[in-house]
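Team,

Forwarding the record for the chain on the shared tracking sheet. I've put the sequence and predicted structure together so nobody has to dig through attachments.
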Amino acid sequence: MNDITILIVDDEAITLSTVSNVLLPYYKVRVANSGKRALEVVHSTPRPELILLDVLMSDLDGYQVLSELKKDPATSHIPVIFVTAMEDTKDEEKGLALGAVDYITKPINPAILLARVKTHLVLKQARDFLHDKNDFLEAEIARRMQQNQIVQNVSIRALAHLAETRDPETGDHILRTQSYVKALATQLQSHPRFKHTLTESFIRLLTESAPLHDIGKVGIPDHILLKPGKLTADEWVIMKTHAEIGARAIEQAEKDVDQPVEFLELAKQIAHWHHERWDGTGYPDGLAGVDIPLSARLMTVADVFDALISTRVYKSAMPFDQARDIIIADRGRHFDPDITDAFIACYEKFIEIARKYQG
């Protein structure tokens, strides 16, 4: 154990000499003859792994030195044993309350000193080992979570790209609506109705899930999905099934895992109900008001705005302000009133997103 350094702090030369002679056969020893000097030595190399600290000193007493050591993250972990002639239990209680690990009274008994020092060094080594192990485990968990997040994001994008191969107009639409949804959710974070739901974690999962809102379009026949004109009544019935097709596909993916996956639940909600309307006249289930999941209500505003401002084979793009006015006019009918208000508040952000991801 002679590679372990111990710092002895005492303003009496005899005590420094006595304690040093007891420890030197087993440890490296550094000494400081004042509290002020101890605070200098503890920051130099080699840094001590344990400190034997006198209580009564002329400049800074042991309590003051210990307080300074505990304030500094670089030294707060170093165990301190008080060495003192004081035998009042109140003095011992005060030292222990400040963070000392033990008390040794003068005159020094060499056997007791060595035993106490060895005990606390072993405890420190155990604490250091656990700390290092925890650091390693935390780093490993963070690394694996990052890997899982990458796999999840890639999987989502792969599925979204699958939808893009069927409908070439959806690529930039996916990027825009994803950003719109995030902007709306962030805008509503402090709103009394939503602040308990729209946590940072929820918004992250919501943003990741948004690209899957139209995944069900992979199940729509080309002659309907890509028709360059107005759909017939029968064709429109088929087109509307994309919401349920998407939800079923995601639900099947959920069944393939042994535990709930939050982003899949949100993705399923968005895919299934983003065409519902606040007044209950939407599809596929005719849900109304807050019976429509918040995730879907947010996507509804994002999806409709982007559809209005985008060119399609059957229509030309609408000016931003005209699309805005249509959404405002449908406040409380098509759209959740508070989400509509959030849209108005971050309308300039929507324009910025639309221009950034222009098709």
